[in-house]
Design a protein that fits this description.
The complex is a heterodimer of chains A (about 425) and B (about 500).
Chain A lengths: L1 H4 L28 H13 L22 H7 L2 H4 L11 H18 L3 E2 L6 H15 L6 E4 L5 H10 L6 E3 L8 H7 L4 E7 L13 H7 L3 E5 L18 E5 L15 E5 L12 E5 L5 E5 L6 H4 L12 H38 L5 E2 L8 E5 L4 H12 L5 E2 L10 E5 L6 H15 L1
Parallel strand pairs in A: 2-3, 2-4, 4-5, 5-6
Antiparallel strand pairs in A: 1-7, 6-7, 8-9, 10-11, 11-13, 12-13
Helix pairs in contact in A: 3-11, 5-11, 6-7, 11-13, 12-13
Chain B lengths: L44 H12 L22 H7 L2 H4 L11 H18 L3 E3 L5 H18 L7 E5 L5 H8 L3 E5 L9 H7 L4 E6 L12 H10 L3 E6 L18 E4 L1 H4 L14 E3 L11 E5 L19 E5 L15 H37 L16 E4 L9 H9 L7 E2 L8 E4 L7 H20 L1 H5 L12 H7 L4 H5 L1
Helix pairs in contact in B: 2-10, 4-10, 5-6, 10-12
Classes of the chains: A alpha/beta (about 425), B alpha/beta (about 500).
């Protein structure tokens, strides 16, 4: 090969690299074989406590759901996971059609007209929705109203993304989402009002009529929603949301310490050109056969460069496929079942905990699969006790994000929590106080 | 060969996987909030498995054949990495669970941070960004934060060579900066005179891909870095092409201030049909406090009683924490990054070691130069007099024929080969950007060269064969104008 190249040695191929820095000695451990690496990583994995070893009541944006076995069997097909972004449609119809089906299912779940091929996660999807609303307001509207009960990390991501853009982000001081107060902040300079429903505290709001108020001020309404909840609850499209987005992890994606996950985003047809990310459209080939292509790419960075709607390129393709296989497998009937199981089990847990003398469930509004419990001690102490004595992973410490919610625990229940686990949690909580 | 949409498979009432009945009393559903209809598929489990298996068969993939897609580094994805990422100890951990019972995750993340710092020659690293463009965005936000922190507020410009990926200018615009494009010189380097003219005290930084998208190592990289530093700017390195530099040169040693890595290119994690990627960023000392977070920090004399599980090595009192760097630009995503990808990249680096990583770069560059020599027999290569790095760019034209890069790309599909990246970089006419990677054998490269030779002949002898290619794929060329005009973006548009 060197002869064909006309080079004397492999080293000679690197003569453009300044000699002073060429061929550094990397201080890395020496290579291991596959067998040794498997042993090493298995050991490292064992230092973690996994949800397969302990009942878990922790949610706060990532949920322990059952993953049908079909999902990973499809994901493990090399034809899917070793393919690139489907820029060449003739040899990418599998990926393209799967994304088209994903877009269709997200539209159905959210009650919206168009969905894109994915974002990195729910938080970055919200940040992109903010950019989208600012663009829809032609840059004239620079105020963004965020509800305080949107996931705290989502709101942090929005602030990170927009730090160079001169936007005014308001509304998320405190912990109570007062719709009237939020609406009062929506003025003639406001591009977007964003809420979460069910919100970070698990609560559900009836948002009928809100969109009309927001639209009267010529701003957009964005709703962040847990996709499993949409198996049971009215889709935000039905109550007039302009953008619906959220974290797709509950749809067949493992917890995996926070990623890779799936940001989904859907909107109305009129905003399709403002939307970031990839889009698959149906069309026909030269022989009239139905097929799929990436379309409207003139919005995207590889064409528009600094005028693009976003810089997003690689997204979460394989996770969108996971969600598609998940939704196809559980289907119409199964998603409703999962959502109801979460709902009933969470309500059973809440009613039992609420009867404990030193605890109170604080959710005044209806809730879905998460609720707030006022505790007699610091949540961290209770969680240490639950873990040490009962091998239970307790709920989320809300005092970390809301100063007025110290000693308040956010408890999540999914279809994976059995009645026995819930009863055991209740018993354990009783003993904390004793 | 086409496959119906999943919605057109099965029949009403079918459910591929029912759930058990509740083992708790049913609670009343909330008034006025329950939905009436839910338009999801109703199919049997066999229907679902068959549907997605059939769809998979319509894809080209690395597993199926050669994938010389320039700038994408489509190398073999080791199977063991897939198994490791799926270990329950990793895949079953919750991002908010107590650090004390996630020490394995934090140890792995910390180790990967250290390795990436060492490989690139940097002082700090954050694994949080989800993809290359996300890492770029984080990088430019750090440039901004650094200057503002020094009270240096007049810097408004980011310099970007004309050969750059489109994500560079897009990330810059999202950070609130304006883009100044720097031309390339006749040898494919950054044009030093143009760069010198653009360097003033309004420059916040330069985004440099090196080797660049022509596959060339900039012959004046040191001068380029010095010029930008000389006017007070920072140098951002786009790590998309790091596969050429592993063990060859460390961007930090060359004076780069920031670099993003694409774990899904350089470190063998799969592309997944468009993600998930992972785009960690590494920085020099003066930028370490600005990294996106949280990052993992090690406390060597950590309280062993806090560690519930056995510590990493016998008697080692190491304890790991998630921390926010003091002047962090903030979190760029929810939680801590793509853990499942970190496991795969860890396994990749661990199985290569320092010598193996250097061999990766050596063989990637050897393969690319070999192909450049072979393909150059039939197609013009603008920088043929230069040694390329891990990829090269050819011109998709044949004297005496009207075929274009697009036709050549489509015809390659008939040989079971994925086309190269085409029409990029924008500065080469009818560009075909070819990156073989180190995991391909000489036999595969020869097969590709033979296909290119045949296509060059066909271009002259039977150009229609190319204009109408591909001929053997599940579908032929698609009507993209119709797609953009009619905008059928979901099954519900079809039904209308």
């Amino acid at each position: 090969m060197l002869e064909a190249i006309g080079a004397p040695s492999i080293d000679a191929l690197f003569s453009d690299v300044p000699e002073a820095v060429r061929f550094p000695d990397l201080r890395l451990p020496a290579a291991l074989t596959e067998m040794e690496v498997a042993a090493e990583l298995t050991e490292i994995a064992d230092w973690n406590l996994s949800t397969s070893q302990a009942p878990i009541f922790l949610g706060a944006g990532a949920y322990n759901h059952y993953i049908p076995s079909t999902v990973d069997h499809i994901l493990r097909r090399g034809e899917f996971f070793t393919a690139y972004t489907p820029y060449q449609p003739e040899v990418s119809q599998g990926t393209l059609q799967a994304i088209f089906e994903y877009q269709s299912m997200i539209c159905a779940l959210t009650g919206m007209e168009v969905a894109n091929a994915s974002h990195y996660d729910g938080g970055t999807a919200l940040a992109e929705a903010v950019l989208m609303a600012v663009n829809a307001g032609r840059g004239q509207r620079t105020r963004i109203v965020l509800s305080p009960t949107i996931h705290p990390q989502y709101r942090q991501v929005v602030r990170t993304y927009t730090q160079g853009m001169g936007l005014e982000i308001v509304g998320d001081e405190g912990s109570a989402a007062d719709l009237a107060a939020l609406l009062a902040l929506v003025d003639s300079r406001t591009a977007l009002l964003a809420l979460q429903n069910p919100d970070f505290l698990g609560q559900l709001d009836n948002l009928d009529g809100l969109a009309q108020e927001v639209h009267a001020r010529k701003a957009l309404l964005c709703v962040v929603a847990n996709p499993i909840s949409l198996g049971l609850l009215k889709p935000p499209g039905e109550y007039g949301a302009d953008i619906v987005l959220g974290e797709g992890q509950p749809l067949g994606i493992p917890l995996s310490f926070g990623g890779p996950y799936l940001g989904y985003l859907a909107t109305r047809q009129q905003y399709v050109r403002r939307m970031a990310g990839r889009l698959v459209g149906q069309t026909a080939d030269t022989q009239g056969r139905t097929g799929y292509v990436l379309t409207l790419s003139t919005r995207e960075q590889h064409i528009r460069r600094d005028k693009a709607t976003s810089n997003i390129c690689t997204n979460q393709g394989l996770l969108a496929l996971a969600a598609t296989v998940y939704l196809a497998t559980v289907g119409k009937c199964g998603l409703r079942q999962v959502a109801e199981l979460c709902y009933h089990k969470a309500h059973y847990a809440a009613s039992r905990i609420n009867k404990l003398p030193s605890y109170a469930v604080c959710s005044a509004k209806p809730f879905f699969n998460e609720f707030v419990v006022r505790c007699p001690k610091a949540v961290s102490q209770i969680n240490d006790f639950l873990l040490d004595e009962w091998n239970i992973i307790g709920g989320y410490d809300l005092g970390r994000d809301y100063t007025n919610l110290a000693n308040h625990m956010l408890v999540a229940v999914t279809e994976m929590n059995t009645r026995d686990q819930i009863d055991e949690l209740v018993t354990a909580l009783t003993e904390v106080v004793l | 060969m086409t496959e119906p949409v999943i919605y057109d498979i099965g029949r009403p009432g079918l459910c591929a996987m029912p759930f058990p009945a509740p083992d708790v009393p049913r609670a009343p559903l909330p008034d006025g909030m329950v939905r009436d209809e839910l338009r999801l598929p109703e199919a049997s489990q066999l229907d679902v498995v068959r549907h997605f298996t059939r769809l998979s068969a319509l894809n080209h993939s690395i597993d199926k054949g050669f994938y010389p897609l320039g700038s994408c580094t489509m190398k073999y994805n080791p199977r063991i990495n897939e198994d490791m990422a799926r270990l329950a100890g990793f895949a079953g951990t919750h991002p908010m669970q107590d650090e004390e019972v996630a020490q394995g995750n934090l140890h792995l993340m910390f180790t990967l941070q250290e390795w990436l710092k060492e490989i690139g020659g940097f002082a700090g690293a954050s694994l949080q960004p989800a993809a290359g463009a996300h890492g770029e965005f984080a990088g430019i936000l750090m440039v901004r934060a650094y200057h503002l922190d020094r009270g240096d507020t007049q810097r408004r410009k980011i310099l970007i060579p004309d050969s750059a990926h489109g994500t560079n200018p897009a990330s810059t615009a999202m950070s609130g900066y304006s883009v100044v494009e720097i031309p390339s010189d006749s040898r494919g380097n950054v044009d030093l005179a143009a760069l010198r003219a653009a360097c003033d005290d309004h420059v916040a930084g330069l985004m440099l891909t090196n080797p660049n998208t022509l596959g060339l190592f900039d012959e004046h990289v040191q001068e380029v870095v010095d010029l930008v530093h000389g006017c007070g700017g920072l140098v951002y390195g786009d790590g998309a092409n790091m596969n050429a530099l592993l063990g060859i040169a460390r961007p930090g040693d060359l004076g780069f201030d920031i670099l993003h890595y694409n774990l899904h290119k350089t470190f063998g994690t799969p592309h997944g049909g468009g993600g998930p990627g992972s785009g960690p960023v590494a920085v020099c000392e003066r930028l370490a406090h600005f990294l996106p977070g949280p990052i993992v920090e090690r406390v060597d004399e950590g309280n062993p009683s806090l560690v519930r599980r056995e510590p990493p090595e016998d008697g080692d009192l190491t304890y790991y924490h998630l921390v926010m760097p003091p002047k962090s630009i903030g979190r760029v995503k929810v939680f801590h990054g793509h853990m499942g990808i970190f496991v795969r990249a860890y396994a990749y680096i661990r199985m290569h070691g320092p010598d193996g990583l250097r061999r990766v770069a050596e063989h990637a560059v050897l393969n690319a130069n070999y192909l450049q020599a072979r393909v150059g027999q039939w197609f013009p290569i603008p920088q043929r007099d230069r040694i390329c790095m891990h990829e090269f760019v050819a011109e998709g034209t044949v004297p005496g024929s009207d075929v274009r890069a697009l036709d050549i790309s489509k015809r390659l599909m008939d040989f079971g080969i994925h086309p190269p990246t085409n029409y990029f970089p924008l500065i080469v006419h009818e560009a075909l950007m070819i990156e073989p990677t180190e995991t391909e054998s000489k036999a595969t490269l020869d097969t590709f060269a033979a296909a290119m030779a045949q296509i060059a002949r066909e271009a002259v002898e039977q150009p229609e064969l190319l204009h109408q290619a591909p001929h053997t794929t599940p579908v032929s060329r698609m009507d993209e104008v119709k797609a953009a005009r009619e905008l059928v973006l979901s099954y519900w548009n079809v039904k209308q």
